[in-house]
Amino acid sequence: MEQVITIQSSQVELSATLHLPQHRSPGSKFPLVIICHGFVGNRIGVNRLFVKASRQFAAHGLAVLRFDYEGCGESFGEYGSYGLDRFIQQTKDVIDYAEGIRQVDQDQIFLLGHSLGGAIATLTASQDQRIKGLITWAAVGHPFHDIVKIVGKEKVQEYLSHPYVDYEGFALTKRFFDSLAEYSPMEAAKLFSGDVMVLHGSHDEDIPVDYCTQYHHTFKRGKSKSCVKEVISGADHTFSSVQGSNHLYGSTLEWLQSHTKKSNQSDYRVI
Q: Most distant CA pair in the chain: distance in Å?
């Protein structure tokens, strides 16, 4: 079952889609994966990355909630007018909403973040003990450096003499860029005490594949229960090939299955 919903975050309405396993009995509860999209992205993803992942996970007994950050996709607001603090708060508000979904096992909530969403998921998980596990796909490691590289250094200089930088129709303000420099997800990773999986494409031209190893080492040195990493051969930043995306979904699903527990209900199972 797929349901389009609206989640309130402060004064902004966030658009989201909830996926629940088709075969369930009254009272069934399932682990939940919350998907955090990347920079100027949305809950559909490039080449429907998040739609395909969500449907595959739901087909194997997992609930999924994917949402649009403020000013992205179908959500209200203006993306780029606020800082990373708002991204983190919006993610926490989505977790609050998820806790109220009767089919969700509140002890089994996972965050999955892609690109900048991977950094936001890491920052959020480091602060929120409700998160059991964390999955990052091609995660940004140094928000200011990485996003400036994507936007272009010369273009970013525009905010020194203009109110915003126009990037693909998004008005990115000085507040937005300044906030990127204030956060270090690599440092925050040390504080997360749950289980972690870090994935990256070997042919990522946007975010260095070396970040995969750096994140892995940081999580291992920190408080995490466990951390595994995988570099997917030939995959780009958005895992846009059939082989790359299928490998991504398969590895992620296998990890999720190994880190979810069965409930006391006889009808609940992760296949």
A: 63
164: amino acid identity, one letter: Y
Residue 118, class by beta-carbon neighbours within 10 Å (0-12 exposed, 13-18 middle, 19+ buried)?
A: buried
C-alpha pair distances (Å), 193 with each of 93, 123, 186, 225, 226:
21, 12, 14, 6, 9
The predicted-structure confidence for 127-149, as pLDDT tens digits, reads as follows 999 999 999 999 999 999 999 99
46-50 LR contacts (CB < 8 Å, sep 24+): 46/238, 46/240, 47/238, 47/240, 47/245, 49/114, 49/238, 49/239, 49/240, 49/245, 50/114
What is the token pair recorded at 152? 């272009």
Instruction: State the DSSP H helix or E strand holding residue 91, giving kind and residue range, or none if neither.
Output: helix 84-99
Structure tokens at 170: 């998004």
For the chain, the average pLDDT equals 94
pLDDT at position 266 over 90: no
Angstrom distance (rounded) from CA 213 to CA 230: 9
In the chain, the domains with their CATH numbers are: 2-143+184-258 (3.40.50.1820)
State how far the Cα of 112 lies from the Cα of 194, in Å rounded to an integer. Answer: 13
Name the pTM for this structure.
Answer: 0.94
Residue 108 and residue 28 in contact, taking contact as beta carbons nearer than 8 Å: no
Q: Is the pLDDT of residue 30 over 90?
A: yes
How far apart CA 71 and CA 82 sit, in angstroms, is: 10
Model pLDDT for residues 80-104, shown as the tens digit of each residue = 999 999 999 999 999 999 999 999 9
Inform me whether the pLDDT recorded for 177 exceeds 70.
Answer: yes
Q: Is 261 exposed, middle or buried (0-12, 13-18, 19+ CB in 10 A)?
A: exposed
- What's the rounded mean pLDDT across residues 160-185? 93
